[in-house]
Amino acid sequence: MSISQISVFIESKPGMMKQALDVMAAAGANIRGYCASDTGDFGIVRFVVDNTEAGLKALVDNGFAAKVKPVVCVRLKDDPGELSRALGVIAQAGINLEYSYSLVGTYICLQVEGDLETVEKLLERESFELVNDNDFFE
Hints:
By secondary structure, the chain is α+β, with helices and mostly antiparallel strands. It has one domain (about 5-105): VC0802-like. It has helices at about 15-25, 50-60, 80-90, 115-125, 135, and strands at about 5-10, 30-40, 40-50, 65-70. It has a 4-stranded antiparallel beta sheet with strand order 2-3-1-4, with helices on one face. Helix 1 (about 15-25) crosses helix 2. The longest helix has 11 residues, at about 15-25. It is globular, with a radius of gyration of 17 Å.
């Protein structure tokens, strides 16, 4: 059993990821999870959306290099060590984990170039709720 993931090759410059998100939203594809990694001038963003066909078509039609790949999706118990236990099963079998990310949450963590305080102020100005360790782990 697997789910479909859309991988998109995106230039690492301001606004490029937003463009990809906008074209998928316009096509009615809702983001259920994503992972973005920077490789210098370009990055790979992996999306799980509720309508893979519509999301992929929208991206390709708008000039993005994108493809669909099946990935394993596991529901973990919210218990200490559960992620380690799941990854241990794979490691014990001698299988290398290429990457992983979490899905379906309303919290996102952003690592940005420059000053985090500036980014925090920008988001607060637009009424986004910022969270610290104490808020998140209450």
